[in-house]
Write a structure and sequence with these properties.
The protein is an alpha+beta fold. Helices cover 40% and strands 17% of the residues. It has eleven helices and nine strands. The chain is globular and about 50 Å long. The N and C termini lie far apart (47 Å).
Amino acid sequence: MDEKGHASGHLMLITPERVFYAGLLGRPRARCSGAFHVYVAIEGGLRLSTAEGREAHGELLAVMPNVRHTVSSDHRSVISVTVEPESVRPGSLDELTARLLGEKRELFIGRIRAAYDELHSRTCREDITSTAFDRMCFGEALPRRMIDPRVAGAMAQMVRFSGEPVTAARCASEAGLSTSRFLHLFKEQTGISFRSFRAWKRARHLLHFANQDLNLAHLAQDIGYPDSTHFSHSIRRFYGLKPRAIFRGSRDLAIYRSGRVEAVDSARTQEANLPAMP
């Protein structure tokens, strides 16, 4: 258990499908995360601008996955709740956004701030599943996406980080499909290309080490980046910050991890209907 953030109040809970972060926002630069983001102000207000020209302000902002955006805050710290899009039913993030920004916005702001207080005071955080996380932040569990086992197996490999590069050709071979058929199935099932999914999960894995004193070149290699330049450019694209800035701003961040996944999720995955693919 990591208690670095006890005094500062800065913390991050990382689960396989969700992240709850309460900490420094950093200097406002454009970022393009692979996850769905809900930003909630700890104090004051927030301002959002996107590459498409959308402008918004308030105490709660929501941004869909893979949307380039910039967030600034009246306060140095912010709460950020993220949801991995492949884990939820297609269309459910649009529905959630409508609720978050609708007439019950104040209720969601209060609920997410209360979730922060609960996580800060809670003695055990290792048992939090996606369902428990969603109920704590949104009041209900988000509907799960059914994933073809052949794609689920490839996804599991990409988040294992065993040191061996995960290629589409290898995943296709293990699934009994041609590479082109596998890539088509992967995007159909997850809503994102194999390459983009792999790039985001690699960058997401960095979060586990953000408060540690590490050699960044060695970390980049361990995560699977071919070189430090690629590492720096990728992290800056996803987070709007260079790796060193992330680590510098996370020194007093308490990081907690929960690997719990509901048992029913595995059963649902296995029962998913397989599409007719040769």
